[in-house]
Structure formats: structure tokens, C-alpha cells
Amino acid sequence: MMPFIEPLRLSRTITRAVLSEEQAEGQGTRVRRSIGRPELQNCDPFLMLDEFLVDKNGGFPDHPHRGFETVTCMLQGQFRHEDFAGYSGVIGLGDVYTRTPTMFLDITMEPHKVVEQNLLFSYTGFICMLSGKTFLGEEEEQFVGEAHNTLTFSGSDGVKDTVLIETKEDAHSF
């Protein structure tokens, strides 16, 4: 009988940090697009990932959402949403709105915490930093992730990979 061998565990490293610059989109709406820009096009299964700020009377023009998933995480305030199928409602503070269940979505990490996040070896790993400053990787080789940056991870050659994520000061949103 062969002995059980623990799967190889590798710590992925940050390969790129891309700042999401703010731009106007819609009426009274500012968007920071991370995934979907030329620098970040291979983050399957995501086509795009936006952080948006909408003033009291602002919004987006009609646009279709056919053939892909949408996820909205409300970090501040509230937003009235209506789609082409006639579904409508208010997305409030702390709500996550999605058309279908999402496998994994971690939004907030409290201060002074360390998490070892497992990634399947075939996944393209990334973190979209919405706020705060996060320290990623082993202590001697930590990368500092800052707000409004999307960080991509190195590829995998192991069975199971991990990323160490640490917050040292304020709470952070991903």
C-alpha cells in the first residue's frame, strides 16, 4: 500500500498590479474598470469588473446583460436596479445581487487578520482591491496591495496553491 502524500502547496506571488483609473460612464456615474482593460483580459471567467460611484440622480442607460453573469456588491448607500426581464429592486448596504449563485466571493477582511486562501491550480488568481492596504505573500517577500489596484497571481505548477493575505490596519474590501 502506497503511503499518503500531502499535496504540494506553493505560495503564488504577485505578477502584476494594475491601477483602475476613474472615468465617466452614464449620467452622474464614475467607473473604475479593472478586468476588461487591455492589461487585464485573461482573468477567466470574468469579462469585466467595475467599481462604480453613482450620484443621487445618476444611473446607467439601458444595456443588455445576456449570456453572462452580473454580480453587484453594495459597499455604501443603495441602488435601484431594473433589468430587461422586468425584475427590479433596491440593492442596499452590504447586499450582494447576482442572477445566479456565485461560487466564492469574499468582500471584506477585518483589520489585523491573516488568511491563507486556497486556489485551485487551474484558476487564474487575482484580487481587486477596493479599499485599504493589504500585505500578500510570505513575510520576507510581501507585496503591498493598495486601493483601486487589481493584482494578478503567478501561474501554478502544483496541485493546490495558496495565497497569504494579511491586513495590518483598517478593514479592507476586495
TrEMBL record:
Pfam families: Pirin (PF02678). Residues 29-97 form the Pirin N-terminal domain. It comes from Linnemannia hyalina. The lineage of its organism: Eukaryota, Fungi, Fungi incertae sedis, Mucoromycota, Mortierellomycotina. GO terms for molecular function: quercetin 2,3-dioxygenase activity. This is Pirin N-terminal domain-containing protein. It comes from the Eukaryota. One of its GO terms (cellular component) is nucleus. Belongs to the pirin family.
